[in-house]
């Protein structure tokens, strides 16, 4: 039997690895980040952004100072493991509500991003709000964009020193005030201010204030756009929610190109092959992340609308129609109608409605009482001198409301049980207590070795407000 011999050609594969190195003497080999000098701009979108930022900034600063029913209205006490939110007190057992809140926030963000791009980043993100506040300090002390650039290029002088020093002092002072307010959400804010400035604050409170002061100062004063372009994950996955009907800050290239300067009185610029863009670069100068929106959609864009206001102002001065840069969709630029109701947007909205409904249901069925039963671990049961079988239980009771309550303790499920222990307990608002009780039963009354029973605790003045939990009674038969 003949077998055809097939030869496989063997090739020599080089094992050396070629390493590509940057050319020697490259001045940009370790180029540092270029500082962005943001130019101030006025307009509809910047007024809207400032007003929204002012409202939420005022809420942030005022809310921890509000008193409700004799206590701080919002106090997220981590050490005591309870969150007071006006008339509502949340305990670790209620953290499912916090999970629902996070889901609501996530799907609300997805919904808004799908519809209107990164408007959260441009109008309400704390990083953006604080960065614009720090830039306001910088402008008021050091001057306009051109003045700041000139100041940085000058050698150190008294004028430069005091302006830089005052700027950083204002940044640190505002960062410290921000940190004190933020920590005031987690510890009583009134004593915090007094104790911090009198050097009597606790270790963790002091450490937290200093930590968040440095974070605010570093993020809003130094890092700024780096947080948006390199650290924040939202900029990276936002494109998964965009589609051709998402409203984003967009440059109309068909109208604007070709760019070029011209006289305001030049009415024949289009015959020269020019578009409406006069290439003034103001859209770049006002951008807080330093991008050129004319290069197309970029992940660095935070949809703050500053370039829209700058461009509209230029168009108005030139006598051209506004809207060369605007919130628009890709389909609109292509001459097609934008679709508002589309499957992805409707899907996010429906999921948002569902999670909001689930949160409201969980909040509505939440009981202001919590009951936990722990059996005596030393013995299942014991016999009393009277010949009764006795089981001992520890009742962990939490008054989750913020008002003092008189609570009534009962047990059901077994006839002729004798209750040995307190039947009423006084608990202050937010107080938890362990109550030890014993149940005794004549062994001749027990039909089985293990019997089921149910403990119950309810408000004395409102029996319908109750908490129940089942357990076992060991009869020893």
Automatic annotation (TrEMBL):
GO terms for cellular component: plasma membrane. The chain crosses the membrane at residues 52-68, 97-117, 165-185, 197-217, 345-365. It comes from the Bacteria. Residues 268-296 form the 4Fe-4S ferredoxin-type domain. InterPro entries: 4Fe4S_Fe-S-bd, 4Fe4S_Fe_S_CS, Cyt_c_oxidase_cbb3_FixG, Electron_Trans/Redox, FixG_C, Helical_ferredxn, Ig-like_fold. This is 4Fe-4S ferredoxin-type domain-containing protein. It comes from Alishewanella jeotgali KCTC 22429. Keywords: 4Fe-4S, Electron transport, Iron, Iron-sulfur, Membrane, Metal-binding, Transmembrane, Transmembrane helix, Transport. One of its GO terms (molecular function) is 4 iron, 4 sulfur cluster binding. The keyword ATP-binding does not apply.
